Amino acid sequence: MQHTETEHILVTGATGGIGLGICHALAERARRAGSPLRLSVASSRAGERLDRLVAELRTAGIDADGVAGDVTNPAQCDALVLQALAAGGDLSGLVCVAGASGPGALADLPVEQWDLTFHLNTRAVWLLARAARPSLLRTRGSITAVASMSGLHPHPGYGAYSPAKAALVMLCRQLAQEWGPDGIRTNSVCPGMIRTPLTEAVYQDDATLQRREALVPLGRIGCPDDIGQAVAYLTSEAASYVNGMNLVVDGGVSDHMLCMIPGRPGKPPVGTQSA
Questions:
Q1: What is the pTM of this model?
Q2: Active-site residue flag, 161
C-alpha cells in the first residue's frame, strides 16, 4: 500500500558517519514503502559535503534540501528549523545527530570545553526540539536523538561526553512525558562501537579491531546503517506507540561486562577442591 502524504524530516549532523547512514536508511525506507519523503539535511556549515549529500538524495528520488547552522548557537538552532520549514513545510520528524566528544581528564578539563560538550550534545537537542514543537504539534510528529553507550556507562578520559550523553537520554525521556500528551513522540538511540570516518583510524590497526570485536557478543563492529535502521524504525508509523524509550544498538557489548570477570559459572570457586 502506498502512502501519499509526504513525510518531512530534519536531520542534523547529516553529512558524515552516523548522520549519513540515517539519511540513507530513511531514503531506503521511503523507497520500499513507496512513500514520498522530503529530507532537510543540516550541517554546521554550507559547502561541498552538504551539496554532495543533497545531490545523492535527489538522485535516489528523495526531495532534499540542505540547511546550515551552528547548533551550539540558540539563534542558529531557531534559524535551522525555520529554513527547513520554509523549504518543505511542516516537519513530521526531527532527528538530532550532531555531537562530538572532547577527551580530557575531569581534573584538568577547561570549563569552556565542558560547556561546549553540553551545548553541542544536549542543549542543542532541547533548542531544536523547542523550535520545531509548533510544527510537530500540527503533524503529531516525532523527535529522535542519537546519544551513546557512553551515556549509559562512565567513560573515563572523555571529559564531559558521558555526562552530556546521559543528560541527553534523560532529556528525551522528559520530553516524551511532557509532549507525549500532545502527540509528539520522543526517543533516543545509543550506538555502541560504530565504524565511521571519525573512528576509522582506530580500526586500521588489526589487533585493536580484533580485540574490540571480541568484546561484542555479535562478533562485529557496527556500521552507520545499523543506527540508520534503528532511527528509521523510531521515526516510522511502526513505532507509533514507542515513546520515551532509549534503544541501545551495540551488538550486546554494554551488557558484556560480567563476561569479563575471571571464572565461569558451574566451576568451583578458586581455592576449593572437588571430591
A1: 0.92
A2: yes
